[in-house]
Amino acid sequence: MARGSRTPRARSRLATRGAAAASTVIGLTTGLFGTAQISALMQLQRLDRAESELLRAYELGGSSAGAAQLLLGHVYYQQRRFKDAERAFEQYLTDVPSAPNASQVRTLIATLQSAKS
Q1: pTM score
Q2: How many domains would you assign to the chain?
Q3: Close Cβ partners of 50 (under 8 Å, ≥ 6 residues apart)
Q4: Residue 96 gets which letter from DSSP?
C-alpha cells in the first residue's frame, strides 16, 4: 500500500503516534520538545526556552517527570541561579529517590550549599 493511499483513520493513528513519540522527554510529555531538542537548547544557551519546556514537562507529569527537575537544575546552574538549582536537584531526589545518579546529585547539592557559606 502506498503511503498516500492510507485511510484517513490510519493516517490519524500514525500522526497521533508520531506526535506522542516526538513529545517524549525522558518519558515525559513536554509538547513539541524532546530530549534532543532540550539538549540542543541548552547547548545553544537558549536556557530560557529550555527552562520553560522543562517546567511545562514537570507541570504535566508531576513527580513522574522528576527527570525534568534534574535538567532544570543544570539549566539554573548554567544561569548561575544556584539557589534555584539546589531546589531543583533536591526535588529531583525527592521524585526519584532511587536514581542511579543520586550520590552525584547529593554531592552537587552539598557543593552548592558549601559555596553559600
Answers
A1: 0.69
A2: 1
A3: 38, 41, 42, 71, 75
A4: -
Q: Which CATH number covers residue 41?
A: 1.25.40.10
User: Quick one: DSSP state of residue 26?
Assistant: T
User: How far apart are the C-alpha atoms of 57 and 114, rounded to whole Å?
Assistant: 30
Taking only the tens place, the pLDDT of each residue in 31-61 is: 445 666 777 777 777 788 889 988 988 888 8
- The string over 4-37, giving b where at least 16 C-beta atoms fall within 10 Å of a residue's C-beta and e elsewhere, is eeeeeeeeeeeeeeeeeeebebbebbbeebbeeb
Domain that holds residue 58: 3-116
The pLDDT tens digits for 55-110 are: 988 888 888 888 899 999 999 999 999 999 999 999 999 999 999 999 999 999 99
